[in-house]
Input
Amino acid sequence: MTGRGAGGSAARHIAWMCAAHVFSMPGFATFATLLPRLQQEWGINNSQAGFVSGAFFAGYMAAVPLLTGLTDRVDARRVYLVSCLTLAAALAAFALLAEGFVSAALCQAAVGAGIAGTYMPGLRVLTDNTAGPAQSRAVSFYTAIFGLGTSVSILASGWIADAWGWRAAFAGAAIGPAIAAAMVAFGMPASHAGHAAPLLDFRPVLRARQVWPYIFGYAVHCWELFGSRSWLVAFCFFAQGAQSMQSQGGPGPWFWSPVAIAAIANLCGPPASIVGNEFALRFGRGRLIAVAMLASGILTGLLGFASALPWFAIAGLAMLHMTLVMGDSSALTAGMVMHSPREARGATMAIHSMLGFGAGFISPLVFGAVLDLAGGNASAPAWSAAFLTLGAGAVIAPWLLGFTRRAG
Output
């Protein structure tokens, strides 16, 4: 199909997969959103809370090489279907069985494994059904919509938990992946996998030197992004609580809740990611990535010092923070897809996602450990130190990975 028909088909595929992507994600941020109340109910410290958050990424990292690598051999829709059902079961298990640190960590690891079989395999379904400029924009929209799915997860989790309790929030989140499975199984064409490709053979990826700056850049991006997503709601609760204890003349009451601030901040991500990819196409991918990383790293490092500011200033900084962090997301993933070996695209996506979410596993742990060591979650200097651990890598990476040279 060519011309208008091909363009219309690509647009339908992009819209359909993006919608399925949002339906697959209601449980993505449920634990991070409910972390303050669960931490209090279970009596766990910040390091333990960070471990539970990180368990999601551990499960993801363990499952993604196999599940995404399989898309080089079988129709990616099959991988997506099984993973959605696994994800729904894991969220239901959290609702029914989680009682504390250990059980929550195990359930979160299973949730991560389910997401591992939906995110990149879903992208494989989409990229196998688009080509040319439409493919770059497909990557841009699909990866950008992750931010919308995160915001939906934050808002839905907060609202349901306030009305019916935290177990109901996890149970409700299990419905979305089942809907996503049906959408992709019956609404998308087959993925064009190379059925003879060896499973878990990453040698073609190791030889593709041009793809590695984008893979390592994505790991730096995920360190910053997922560390922030894991702790942003808790930071806003700290700022709100600290300000409420101040005498008259303080910053004043908060008209947005911490959950609303985090959700709205995440809504800034999709347009930022899409616009970032368009700038990359127009002005150069290396230039866009270098500027976005430097700007986001500096602001992320400063965010932890903002707890004494009025609520609207914290909300504005959180929104700008998420805008800058997401500015290079699509550009990095589109660069990976463009430079991946065609016969090993699934394997390339697997390594890209494994290292990215592996960084997402370590980042919340480091954040929580620094928070404990520097004084605890009632200490403003401790929050400042913890946020510095998120932004430092983004400031250094553009030089180490060569994006500043590409910008020049």
